[in-house]
Design goal:
The chain is α/β, with parallel strands linked by helices and 187 residues long. It is built from four helices and eight strands, in the order βββαββααβαββ. Helices cover 24% and strands 24% of the residues.
């Protein structure tokens, strides 16, 4: 098996109020999908942000030799509702120094609607797909995505999981459904 792109050993965050999350152990290898679940308020999103290097921890070790990028993380990393899909893609390309012509009527394999659709008009599934597209522009080794089953039907969740698998990237995804879980997160 190839070396892990990301490895957490005993990762946790303890504050004066108690544990946000603790004892998180995982290794993510190329092409692998790891799902995190736990109780509401159990630190799932905080753990995801920590795994992507965007949240400080107080315990354990994080080894992250690969590049990470975030898909949708509600309340943290969301698309601007008043912009179109094409505007989001164009903005990200410019930020990455990869600006190239983007045709407003073109479709991306992960988007069901026209690229001139406003984000506010996208379904929850297509909002996830847009954020995956934006994350993939960063050419990450590991994609990190929150709430892959919130606001989606079970069929849509399976479609999203298939989309993620089709990227060929390692993926860490947070979900509420314990049946989708490969790693538990909690206090």
């Amino acid at each position: 098996m190839e070396a892990a792109l990301l490895r957490a050993e005993g990762l946790g965050l303890r504050t004066r109020r108690g544990w946000v999350f603790r004892d998180l152990d995982l290794a993510v290898h190329p092409g692998e999908l790891v799902t995190l679940t736990g109780p509401a308020g159990g630190g799932r999103t905080s753990a995801l942000l920590a795994l992507g290097g965007r949240f400080r921890t107080s315990h354990g070790t994080l080894r992250n030799p690969g590049r990470t990028a975030f898909g949708l993380v509600p309340g943290v990393n969301e698309p601007e509702p008043a912009l179109t899909v094409a505007e989001h893609v164009g903005e990200r390309l410019r930020l990455l120094g990869l600006a190239r012509p983007w045709h407003r009527r073109s479709r991306h394999a992960l988007l069901a609607g026209e690229s001139d659709d406003l984000v506010r008009d996208l379904s929850p599934l297509d909002r996830h797909r847009l954020m995956i597209k934006l994350a993939l522009l960063e050419d990450p080794d590991v994609l990190l995505i929150d709430d892959i089953d919130v606001g989606l039907t079970p069929a849509e969740t399976q479609t999203l999981l298939s989309d993620l698998d089709a990227t060929g990237r390692a993926v860490i995804a947070v979900c509420r459904d314990p049946f989708l879980s490969t790693v538990g997160v909690g206090r």
